[in-house]
Predict the 3D structure of the following.
Amino acid sequence: MDFVLQILANSIVLGTQILFLAISLYLIKAVSKIEHVSLGAIGVAIAYTFYLGQTLHIGIWFSIVLSLLAATLLGLASYFLLEKFCKNNQILLALLVSLSFGIGIESIIAILFNSGAKNIIDGVLPIMSFAGITITLPGLYTLILGVLLAIITYIIVKKTPAGRILRSISENQSLVATLGVNQKRVRKMVYIIASIIAGMVGILLGMNTSLTPTLGFTYIMIAFIALFVGGPSDIRGTIVASYVIILIPEFLINFAPASMQFTGSYRMFFVFVIACIVLSIKPRGIFSKTVRHA
Amino acid sequence: MGYFYTIFARFLASLGQGVGGQVSFSMAGIFLLSLPVCFSFSAYTMAILHKKFAVVLWVSIIIALFLTMMLGALFSYTYTKVSKDSFTVLCLGSILAFDAFVRSFDSFTGGVLGISGILRPESIRTLPALVQFSFFVLIVILVAQYLVLKSPMGRKIRAFKEHPVALQAFGVSQKSVISFVIIGGSLLSGISGLLEVFRIQFLDPSFGGIPNLIVLVSISILALKPKVKAVVLASMLVVFLPELISFLDFPSALLGHLRVLLYSVLLIVLIHTISGKSQFQKREI
């Protein structure tokens, strides 16, 4: 039983890491319809900035300020790169630009820091044990922050005027403009907030495991899949799918008959199979609604 | 001379894949981001059949290409079933899924260590012979592309991008156009994968993947015009331009990263330059 609970706890931490990125993707998609896949690389770049601060011994608060600065700059860079495509409704071209931007960032990180793994926390990771479950402290922080983020995002998006503006921008840009909303400023803010969230998960990931330049890509792809499996138009779908597409593969890997010998490297393969099954049954995601166009 | 042959062989392999990319991305408007999977899949299938099951090399090449076409048919079926956004997600996801698959089935694929010592067929054993063979294959592909562009199918492909519903209204099956483009693109990518693996004679999970996708997309975006010479010039630019870096005095460990960085910057600049005046621009009726 303890083993099952441990697997469940590990999967929930991993699912929460995916949730962070999926929420960032959701926010950007809500205001610009763009799938900003370079968020994974942006998160890792911010984590490397934090790591740089730590290695320069400038203190944790200065490292955080440095990371926030990097997040703002990368958020603004994303905005300026992608805004043109958002205006022209060229979503797939924007995806390609975002992908290239992410790969460019990964290359720059590899050139500056080399491809070797870097640890933000040196030595043994601090852990906590509770009811037979052991969890690392960065894992626990991930869990707490992730749950808070999910609740706050849900409330903001669903229940506040800011959330309504957010959703209406992607629905009808012209109408929102006539209501006096400065769309450019909203989008700029959302890009910066999304970069900060991606940076948070990057730093937490770096604390929990090791940092490598390409670390963000697999995570952002899983988050990307979670967004579409859940249904990109509903934040509830993003939250649920982030956990579902992690829990099912983890349980398959750990509880399949020994003869099948599934290892952790099968995870992405199972995620892909789940996405294929769900999207072939519900092409617009689990929480999608049928929309009637005029 | 060896360097020249190596680069020229790489150019020919990229050109083959570029033709598939040009037809699917630029002409049909189908963002077939799964082409790197077909590139790796054909190479792995051929290597596994030949090395693990002792199938005759030419037979394993034919089986590999046939199976790559089947994989293309699977992607084609998926395209007709899911939304465009979801298809893009699945295509990108398939690159990582294939990578995971290759790493996991190490008894067949060699896992992270890969498969080494892949022999070329007897008739193309040396690098110059391989380049000549690749050149011949590419001439056949380019002639076929020229004929298709001039045929009713070429017009149907372009019409599919402009207005798929109108195409259907004229009695043309959308599915036939989609299948032709996706299966054809996958086959061309598979052929390129085989030419590339015969050049390097080694396979590991990094074969194909995202860097390959960036090269492919760069060629496809540069070769916007539905002309054969456009794809040839685009492939030349994309393959030869980063070679300038190798003449600069950078440490060898950095060269790979610099090349990828150059590709990504090139692609961003290209898309920004071309998007405003290209065929990608939505035309209001």
In short: Residues 42 and 118 of chain B are 13 Å apart (CA to CA). The first strand of chain B starts at residue 115 and ends at 116.
